[in-house]
């Protein structure tokens, strides 16, 4: 039968799911939204636990105009990826870590959250139902986007009376338009991403709306993204709009410590362990913006960006370059080590891979 990517011969979810690859241009995936076949939906009331979710055909959802997420930003998201291994098996990377981070964030945002087991099972079900959208080995990955939101109606400021946990997926390639080539960052001096005691350390949706203005201004000037400084001393590195940051000095790798204003990235944490296992010294501490001046390499990490080498950083008009217009050796080495693991090309000694 001909499958044009828009039609799927399905009567009910979980039955009759075709595993033929979707008919799209697998060689030119960027990081853009592409609708797939199914999404996972699970609801619960405030004060109760999530219990029974289901796969539904992917589509728009209905929300009250008074929903907590729409009015007061009561929402969190997650991001993880599924890879198709060369032998056809499907691999997830540390999904329990996303589940645990969502739980921590839910606590901060006054929301109930699915258990780690519910989260991981829901991710697996959603990936399997959308199997034909997982790129062929080596061409990208299936980005998995769990959402947790206050879906019930509120008017006065309060936690919403109902919550929805939803997972959708989209096939993706490289995040930055530069592909794997080094990106160019600009240090933001006016705006800040997070403040002590705020929500910078959890993956709440508002953190990402808050960086759009600086990001758009930077892009309009030709930069790839923005590097934020702490909001108190305006001197220490925090993170980039959508990823964590690392600097390399010889055998030493340094990254800002997690202290409430920085998103605890799962790729960040994994790269620290990979670097340690390869004999690098790693420090998590305050990193002064001046340390950018004598770094050998700078790179960013995130689920979406993976490991992205930084080619230059501009601060108050002064530009420092890294890697001689190429990818730095350490960035390249860590990128290869991480992606080989994620794609199942090297043995998983860390116990990070979940094979479906
Ligand atoms: C991710 O890396 O998965 C993120 O959540 C960043 C997002 C802004 C694309």
From TrEMBL:
Alphabetized GO MF terms: L-isoleucine-2-oxoglutarate transaminase activity; L-leucine-2-oxoglutarate transaminase activity; L-valine-2-oxoglutarate transaminase activity
Transmembrane intervals: none
Alphabetical list of InterPro entries matching this protein: Aminotrans_IV, Aminotrans_IV_CS, Aminotransferase-like, B_amino_transII, BCAT-like_C, BCAT-like_N, BCAT_family
Record bears the keyword Amino-acid biosynthesis: yes
GO annotation (BP), single: branched-chain amino acid biosynthetic process
Catalytic activity annotation: L-valine + 2-oxoglutarate = 3-methyl-2-oxobutanoate + L-glutamate; L-isoleucine + 2-oxoglutarate = (S)-3-methyl-2-oxopentanoate + L-glutamate; L-leucine + 2-oxoglutarate = 4-methyl-2-oxopentanoate + L-glutamate
Necessary cofactors: pyridoxal 5'-phosphate
Keywords of this entry: Amino-acid biosynthesis, Aminotransferase, Branched-chain amino acid biosynthesis, Pyridoxal phosphate, Transferase
Modified residues (N6-(pyridoxal phosphate)lysine): 203
The keyword Amino-acid biosynthesis appears for this protein: yes
Domain of life: Eukaryota
Listed Pfam families: Aminotran_4
Gene3D superfamilies documented for this protein: 3.30.470.10, D-amino Acid Aminotransferase, subunit A, domain 2 (3.20.10.10)
Family matches, as SUPFAM superfamilies: D-aminoacid aminotransferase-like PLP-dependent enzymes
Any one Gene Ontology cellular component term annotated for this protein: chloroplast
EC number: 2.6.1.42
PROSITE patterns: AA_TRANSFER_CLASS_4
Protein family according to the UniProt entry: Belongs to the class-IV pyridoxal-phosphate-dependent aminotransferase family.
Official protein name in the record: Branched-chain-amino-acid aminotransferase
Species, as recorded: Nicotiana sylvestris
């Amino acid at each position: 039968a001909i499958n044009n990517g828009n039609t799927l011969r399905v009567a009910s979810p979980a039955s009759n799911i075709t595993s033929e690859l979707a008919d799209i241009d697998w060689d030119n995936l960027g990081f853009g939204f592409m609708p797939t076949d199914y999404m996972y939906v699970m609801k619960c009331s405030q004060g109760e636990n999530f219990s029974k979710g289901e796969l539904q055909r992917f589509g728009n959802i209905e929300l009250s105009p008074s929903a907590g997420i729409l009015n007061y930003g009561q929402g969190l998201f997650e991001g993880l990826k599924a890879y198709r291994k060369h032998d056809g098996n499907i691999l997830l990377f540390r999904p329990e870590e996303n589940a645990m981070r969502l739980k921590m964030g839910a606590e901060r945002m006054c929301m109930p959250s699915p258990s780690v087991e519910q989260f991981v099972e829901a991710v697996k079900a959603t990936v399997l139902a959308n199997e034909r959208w997982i790129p062929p080995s080596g061409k990208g990955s299936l980005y998995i986007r769990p959402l947790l939101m206050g879906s019930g109606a509120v008017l006065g400021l309060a936690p919403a009376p109902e919550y929805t946990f939803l997972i959708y997926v989209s096939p993706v390639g490289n995040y930055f338009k530069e592909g794997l080539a080094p990106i160019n960052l600009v240090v933001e001096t006016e705006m800040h991403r997070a403040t002590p005691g705020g929500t910078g350390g959890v993956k709440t949706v508002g953190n990402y709306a808050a960086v759009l203005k600086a990001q758009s201004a930077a892009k309009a000037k030709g930069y790839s993204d923005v590097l934020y400084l702490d909001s108190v001393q305006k001197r220490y590195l925090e993170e980039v709009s959508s990823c964590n940051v690392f600097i390399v000095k010889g055998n030493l790798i340094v990254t800002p410590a997690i202290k409430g204003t920085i998103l605890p990235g799962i790729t960040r944490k994994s790269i620290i362990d990979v670097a340690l296992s390869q004999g690098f010294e790693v420090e998590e501490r305050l990193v002064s913006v001046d340390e950018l001046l004598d770094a050998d390499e700078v790179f960013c990490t995130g689920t979406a960006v993976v490991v992205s080498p930084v080619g230059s950083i501009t601060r108050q008009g002064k530009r420092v370059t890294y890697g001689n217009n190429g990818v730095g050796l350490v960035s390249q080495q860590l990128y290869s080590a991480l992606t080989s693991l994620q794609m199942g090309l090297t043995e998983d000694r860390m116990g990070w891979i979940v094979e479906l």
